[in-house]
């Protein structure tokens, strides 16, 4: 009897986790990119007009998040060097609940060469999800969502790289 109770308990926890994850998605494949405006004293401002006709990767992270650190290290090592000079691509790395000052201090340690945009009140993050980071949203040149991921694995990151290449 105890074995069955443990099994059912584990299955119930998994179901709750899956349902909670499903509820956090606010956009799905094929949806248009939310009209976001990013303001950074360090990197300037980004408006929806700046993104028209481009493949756009929105990467949402937090400085305290270990999986985010792994993903951003791969962005620095692999993704950004490959696409930073491509006029058809735009990378938006957004710090959830971080200010420009927070991100500047963080980047003094990390030495990332790509821009980090603040989202101190979760205003941008809330357009995409309610919880869980890191998150990546890839939009095609038509402005529609073509790929999304939550969490980080090397395999997932490679899939993202492949999707970017195909979209360009």
Strand content: 15-25%
Uncertain residue segments:
7-23
What structural class results from the helix and strand content?
alpha/beta
CATH H level: which superfamily?
Glutaredoxin
List the helices and strands and how they pair.
Elements: H1 2-24, E1 38-40, E2 44-46, H2 48-51, E3 55-61, H3 66-83, E4 89-96, H4 100-110, E5 116-119, H5 125-128, E6 135-139, E7 145-150, H6 154-167
Parallel strand pairs: 3-4, 4-5
Antiparallel strand pairs: 1-2, 3-6, 6-7
Describe this structure in words.
The protein has 168 residues and is α/β, with parallel strands linked by helices. It has a single domain (27-167), classed as Glutaredoxin (3-Layer(aba) Sandwich), CATH 3.40.30. 44% of the residues lie in helices and 21% in strands. The chain contains 6 helices and 7 strands. It has helices spanning 2-24, 48-51, 66-83, 100-110, 125-128, 154-167, and strands at residues 38-40, 44-46, 55-61, 89-96, 116-119, 135-139, 145-150. The strands form 2 sheets. Strands 5-4-3-6-7 form a 5-stranded mixed β-sheet. It is globular, with a radius of gyration of 17 Å. The N and C termini lie far apart (56 Å).
